[in-house]
């Protein structure tokens, strides 16, 4: 399938943290961006999208993951679809998996119905790749695009990983069906930080940095950090590189660490701020292997590194240093007064 270097691209989940950055990147590259949100009239969630400028243009369209056919009109005539949307759940349950797969199916069906879509880019996650069970056993601590989170099961409570993994496989399989006009690329980001484009983004994945500023206890997970700028660039280049077709790409920066490294760098960058990296209380850490789902407990215990070589060689990504990403994150939260 030829690459999509110009034309119209529909983006689901456009008001979200990753979706907003993807929209901005594509508009700046000259595409007509159809930013799909549930309610285009909700200025609180869409004003930052309306303010985006670039060589291209951005249009607001409506779309709801849980409604079949909801994206039919926004995808009609589109050259590509970037699927960033995911239904937000306050708790990880089987409902999360069902809604994630159902929503992805609805998006795929609308893309197929359009008949004009040449490339479909799926926003997945390293959660579909990494395996804390193997990491904690010492069997494997470094992961590539060849790996799948196959130890993620309902029995161990791996709801998020199952949703991301199975949705990715669904997308790959769907592209092989008769009558499908598009090929597929999957982007697997790590923990995405960087510039928050609206207040709601401070409670998306950058919330871990927000918690350091507030000094709230949090699990000491080994994070594969990545700046939203590179995640957006990965989605753009997934459209423009013919050789990306049918592939998945780990998109993580060159620094992975537990929160303490980020906290120490923030203290250096902002010596007047009271930055605290508080672990969970001792009794919660003690009870985690008993009360928490075993998959979650192993995710905290394990030290899993992601290989980003392929994203560099095929997509040509160069990663922002962690210090710069942290500064972008904090400044974008503090300067508008969203975090005080």
What does this protein structure show overall?
With 340 residues, this protein is of the alpha/beta class. The chain has 13 helices and twelve strands. A seven-stranded parallel β-sheet has the order 3-2-1-4-5-7-10, sandwiched between helices. A three-stranded mixed β-sheet has the order 8-9-11. It has a two-stranded parallel sheet with strand order 6-12. The model has no long low-confidence stretch (mean pLDDT 91).
Topology summary:
Elements: E1 8-12, H1 17-28, E2 32-37, H2 43-50, E3 57-62, H3 72-75, E4 80-83, H4 94-114, E5 119-123, H5 132-137, E6 142-143, H6 159-174, E7 183-189, E8 191-193, H7 207-214, E9 223-227, H8 228-240, E10 248-251, E11 256-257, H9 259-269, H10 282-291, H11 294-301, E12 305-306, H12 309-313, H13 322-334
Parallel strand pairs: 1-2, 1-4, 2-3, 4-5, 5-7, 6-12, 7-10, 8-9
Antiparallel strand pairs: 9-11
The average pLDDT value, as a whole number, equals 91
pLDDT < 50 stretches: none
Radius of gyration: 19 Å
**Strand portion:** 15-25%
Question: What is the N-to-C succession of helices and strands?
Answer: EHEHEHEHEHEHEEHEHEEHHHEHH
Number of strands: 12
**Helicity, as a percent range:** 25-40%
Within the largest sheet, what's the order of strands?
Answer: 3-2-1-4-5-7-10
Main pleated-sheet profile: 7 strands, parallel
- Cα separation of the termini: 49 Å
Number of distinct helices: 13
Protein structure class: alpha/beta
Q: Can you tell me the overall shape?
A: globular
């Amino acid at each position: 399938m030829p690459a999509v270097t110009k034309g119209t691209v529909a983006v689901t989940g456009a008001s979200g943290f990753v979706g907003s950055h993807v929209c901005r990147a594509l508009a700046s590259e000259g595409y007509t961006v159809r930013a799909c949100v549930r309610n285009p009239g909700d200025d609180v969630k869409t004003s930052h999208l309306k303010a985006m400028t670039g060589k291209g243009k951005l249009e607001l369209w409506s779309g709801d993951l849980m409604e079949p056919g909801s994206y039919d009109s926004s995808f009609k005539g589109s050259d590509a679809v970037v699927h960033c949307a995911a239904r937000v759940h306050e708790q990880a349950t089987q409902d999360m998996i069902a809604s994630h797969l159902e929503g992805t199916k609805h998006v795929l069906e609308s893309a197929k119905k359009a008949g004009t879509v040449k490339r479909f880019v799926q926003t997945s996650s390293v959660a579909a790749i990494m395996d804390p069970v193997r990491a904690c056993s010492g069997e494997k601590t470094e992961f590539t695009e060849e790996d799948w989170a196959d130890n993620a099961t309902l029995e161990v409570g791996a709801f998020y990983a199952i949703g991301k993994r199975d949705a990715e496989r669904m997308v790959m399989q769907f592209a092989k069906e008769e009558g499908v006009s598009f090929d597929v690329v999957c982007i697997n980001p790590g923990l995405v930080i960087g510039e928050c484009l609206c207040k709601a983004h401070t409670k998306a994945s950058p919330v871990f940095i927000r918690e350091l500023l507030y000094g709230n206890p949090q699990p000491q997970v080994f994070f594969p950090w990545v700046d939203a700028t590179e995640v957006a660039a990965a989605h753009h280049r997934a459209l423009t590189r013919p050789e990306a077709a049918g592939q998945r790409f780990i998109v993580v920066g060159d620094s992975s660490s537990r929160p303490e490294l980020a906290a120490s760098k923030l203290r250096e960058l902002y010596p007047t701020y009271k930055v605290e990296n508080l672990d969970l209380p001792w009794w919660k850490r003690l009870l985690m292997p008993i009360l928490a789902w075993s998959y979650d407990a192993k995710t905290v215990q394990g030290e899993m590194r992601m290989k980003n070589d392929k994203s560099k060689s095929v997509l040509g990504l160069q990663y922002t240093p962690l210090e710069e990403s942290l500064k972008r994150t904090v400044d974008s939260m503090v300067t508008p007064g969203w975090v005080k």
